[in-house]
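Justification of resources, computational component.

The compute hours requested in this renewal are based largely on the per-chain cost of generating structure records like the one below. Each record pairs the submitted sequence with a full structure-token output. That output is archived, and it is also reused by downstream analysis tasks.
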Amino acid sequence: MNLISLRQALHPQQSLSSLSVGLTTGAIGVVFDLSYAVLIFSGSLASHLSAGIGLILLSAATTRIAIAITSSFPGMVADLGSVPTAILAWSMGMVVKQIPATAASTEIFATVVATIALTSVLTGLCLLLGTLRMDSGLGGCHDSNSPAPLGYSNAIATVAADIKFYSLIDTRRQPQ
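The structure output for this chain reads:
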């Protein structure tokens, strides 16, 4: 960013409009993010809703900041998606369903957070491979003119990995 574009970006009129757009989209985003947290952390996870809200808000803030800093489009606004969140909530329900009823609430919460973290890392890895054009072996479907380097097949693969992850976490305890 050169000095002239920095001056234009910091011009009071430009700054005021950017600030108002940022506050408006941020406020709307927080409402959506709260509903996503309630969707994911419901049922047997309801006792951990406050921690879930914190995790979702941190995730959304990280997403917004990363897009704002790295986007090549000025004024780009990003937020968590409703469809992936619904899929994540469903898959977390499947994870919780596999955990024995005798498991402690904190164990269930830790398992769900670990699953979400693993899914996030796998999704990030797929996005990185797609960005580097190394996703052809993963079934990525992109063409050289597409601004989105990663096909939905890789995103679906990470959801499938998330759903299968519950089978790796065996919290069932054998009687002693």
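The CA atoms of residues 24 and 133 lie 36 Å apart. The chain is about 65% helix and 0% strand.
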